[in-house]
Design goal:
mainly alpha; 14 helices
Length: 338
């Protein structure tokens, strides 16, 4: 393998991981707020939750488009195999995203909002569930032939570890959604989400512990990676850092901090991503297809890097700019006409 053919797939693995992290971080709180909207005690409170997303949620989902486009362009073999193996959870995710998008727009015009309220919250839950099952399916591995084409069964992705991953991801989204609402709301609504953040932090921690225990038990490749030097020292440190971050998160919630809970939650998500990347790399489909086997021609990868290199700063600037412009609290006055 030449140097370029070895280096470029690694670069694109990193780019893909970056896009996926930005999507999970940004649209994660969107989905979390959507799920939390199902528990809102009044239409006024639900309206505040919806308003907190109205100016940012479209841009947040753009990163998912980049994930799909980058996977298709940089690793076409993996794209075809993953979508064949995880057709049901991915369709579930897309249905949930479309359902919540339609509900969000129609709710603004509806006189009777009950149906669209339920549709938005349910769509958010379904999208998160589909993403969790897809992640669980990838971690479980996908059966392929010598050419890398999917040869497994339709329901291979559905198993106990994938259910655990899906439920934990939902709790993680509720956690980041709660901390976002702490930042954006005031009064009784803010107090409510201090409570939901504490509950979801504990349930997410429990889920993460169970996944940490189950992964090396169910998946031999993960066991080998985790307990082999020098990665064993890194994996020994990740749970320690996670416990510290959870402690800092809970402490910030106890002292009623507004912004730091969101920061600690993002760092928890980042730590999780680093752990998953270390377990999976250099495979893009554990343990069947490596990034080198699935990658496109080096010339195509170079062309895409030039295009993406120009696009990433623009998208990051736009995302940062919109959060600066709409950085204030969402109040009842903004909800007014609802």
């Amino acid at each position: 393998m030449n140097t370029l053919g070895y280096f470029l797939p690694q670069v694109w693995f990193g780019i893909l991981a970056l896009f996926l992290f930005l999507y999970v971080m940004l649209d994660g709180f969107d989905l979390g707020v959507g799920i939390l909207s199902l528990t809102a005690s009044s239409e006024e409170r639900r309206g505040i939750l919806m308003t907190s997303l109205s100016n940012v949620w479209d841009a947040n989902e753009t990163w998912l488009v980049l994930v799909g486009g980058s996977l298709f362009g940089a690793f076409p073999l993996a794209y075809g195999t993953i979508f064949s193996a995880l057709y049901i959870p991915l369709v579930l995710m897309v249905f949930g995203l479309v359902f919540r998008a339609v509900a969000f727009e129609f709710r603004e015009q509806a006189r009777r909002k009950f149906f669209w309220n339920i549709a938005f919250g349910t769509g958010s839950f379904i999208a998160a569930l589909g993403q969790g099952f897809a992640l669980g399916g990838v971690l479980a591995g996908i059966k392929v032939d010598e050419s890398g084409h999917f040869i497994g069964q339709t329901w291979d992705w559905f198993n106990l570890p994938s259910v655990l991953v899906a439920l934990t991801l939902i709790q993680g989204y509720v956690l980041i959604g709660s901390t976002y609402l702490i930042w954006k709301t005031t009064g009784e609504l803010q107090e409510t989400h201090y409570k939901t953040a504490k509950i979801s932090a504990i349930t997410t921690l429990i889920g993460a512990i169970l996944i940490t225990i189950a992964t090396p038990i169910f998946y031999d490749y993960a066991q080998i990676r985790i307990f082999s030097a020098p990665l064993v020292y890194i994996f020994a440190g990740i749970p320690v850092i996670a416990v510290v971050l959870i402690f800092l998160l809970l402490r910030s919630l106890n002292v009623k901090a507004e912004k730091t809970p969101f920061v600690w939650t993002i760092l928890l998500f980042l730590l999780t991503f680093i752990g998953l990347a270390l377990i999976i790399f250099p495979y893009i489909i554990p343990t069947q297809i490596t990034i080198y086997e699935a990658s496109a021609d080096p010339s195509a990868l170079v062309f895409m890097i030039i295009f993406i290199g120009a696009l990433i700063p623009v998208m990051l600037f736009y995302n940062i700019y919109q959060y600066i412009v709409f950085r204030g609290k969402v109040t009842v006055g903004e909800y007014g006409a609802e």
